[in-house]
Specification:
Elements (H helix, E strand, L loop, with lengths): L6 E6 L4 E6 L4 E7 L4 E6 L5 E6 L4 E6 L5 E6 L4 E6 L5 E6 L4 E6 L4 E7 L4 E6 L5 E6 L4 E6 L6 E5 L10 E2 L5 E2 L7
Antiparallel strand pairs: 1-2, 2-3, 4-5, 5-6, 6-7, 8-9, 9-10, 10-11, 12-13, 13-14, 14-15, 16-17
Amino acid sequence: MDPDGEVAYVTNSALDIIQIINLDDSIIQATVPTGDAPIGIAYSPDTRLLAVANSAENTISIIDRVTLELINTIPVAVAPFDVVFMDDSNTLYVSATLGRGVSVVDVADRRITEFLTACSAPRDMAVTLDYAYLYVTCEDADTLAIFNTADTAEVKFIGVASQPWAWPSRRTTDGRSSPAAGPTW
């Protein structure tokens, strides 16, 4: 959903597009081509960019949210699933379900700057409201990985129920899905 709650951005993996839906009249107002099999989508905190995980292509698409034009396609680890922006609107975390970790991407430089070894089959992600912690569900390992974003070597693993995906969270005014707070280390 956009920051104003007026538009929803929906990935369509079968057609390799994003559908932009006006929520007032339930009309698809635009479609935007992406890479192969888009899944995860997020917009930057400054609301200028959309990032889309193209799972069958091992890339992310960066799209201008106003013009709906493709800006860049950036290669990432195998089978990207979810995308989460940091507060600078330039750093992007990309879970890689078959890549067994999370790519940290510099959007402006179009490159991976770090790879976080998370677990087997990382899926859904969220950052805390203060951007201090990154939460990653690990489907095949039955864990939740929590990374300190200031020092990604600091990670905590918590055992959870079988095959975790998303978890209940708070929707923030800037559209992020976020756990309320970080862990007690």
